[in-house]
Amino acid sequence: MDWWPKEEEIWRMFEQTAQQTEEFLDQLGLGLDKATIELEEVLDLALAPVVTVFLDLDQSLTEWTQPLAQRINPWLDQQPVCMGCSHYHGQMYGDTFFVCAMHPYGAQMQSCPDWEA
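Above: the chain's sequence. Below: its structure in token form.
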């Protein structure tokens, strides 16, 4: 069996193959990292205007519906005395719900002396 390689030649071929495989995988990893970075940059550039438009639209909708929300929210906030009052604020500040300047925690009676349409 002269054609069969000797044991040390087989081990040398395995070592070369392992080294080449390791180099290939290192290069592949670097290429994937570079492609990922480039893809993130492209997506950031492409999606940034869309996100900005949606955020602006959300802010605009909040501003446009604020007068309506101030009239309807007393129903939702369990402040029936405040329903339809022009002084109603109805916003959260941290964990505190602010009803209006005259009665920050809501009118504690059946009718509010400061109520205005």
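The mean pLDDT is 80.
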